[in-house]
Amino acid sequence: MGSDINFRVTLSIRKEPEFCPVYCKMEHSPKFPQQKTVKLSCDAIYRFDISFKPPQSLEVLSIDGKQIEAVERLRDGIACAYSAYFNTKDVQPCARGQREELPIIIKINSSGYLSTCLQIKYYKSDNRSHYEWGALLHCIELDCSCTDYQNIIVNKETYRKFGVET
Fold it and tell me: pTM for the complete prediction?
């Protein structure tokens, strides 16, 4: 096994059909497990774009415990990109002060499983003033390494907002 395999995964979430970016906010309460919350609307479809640099082969994608079809959109010698669609049709809005976990598991050929979890606040679809408030989320970058060819470790997670890095 010997050497580490290092790569970056970039996750971008857009609301369909307008391909609108989603919003996120910083949490100031210690009651939430994560400092950042991604805001999503119930009864919506979101496009998840997942890119790898250098290229990796995505075998299986699971979002919120459901296997989702991921379609390869681009591949060259530098990077590759996949797209998948996640539907929040049957999701209930979060109560005030409540957050949900959105587990994302990616099986990568020859490397293993990458597991991450986003903290989400779901809003009613007619509550645009809340889910379209905060910082526009450009992407989430995951700097990863794999040493044992079974599990992938996320060494650094960076939320990139339009014009700002956090």
Answer: 0.91
State the pLDDT confidence band at 2, using cuts at 50, 70 and 90: very low
Q: For the chain, give me the number of helices (H) and strands (E)?
A: 1, 14
Q: What is the 3-state secondary structure (H, E, C) of the chain?
A: CCCCEEEEEEEEEEECCCCEECEEEECCCCCCCCCEEEEEECCCEEEEEEEEECCCCEEEEEECCEEECCEEEEECCCCEEEEEEEECCCCCCCCCCCCEEEEEEEEECCCEEEEEEEEEEEECCCCHHHHCCCEEEEEEEEEEEECCCCEEEEEEEEEEECCEEC
- Integer Cα distance of 127 and 33 in angstroms: 25
Question: Domains of the chain, with CATH numbers?
Answer: 5-165 (2.60.40.10)
Per-residue confidence at 3, pLDDT binned at 50, 70, 90?
A: low
Residue with tokens 């587990």: 103
Contact 123, 94 (CB under 8 A): yes
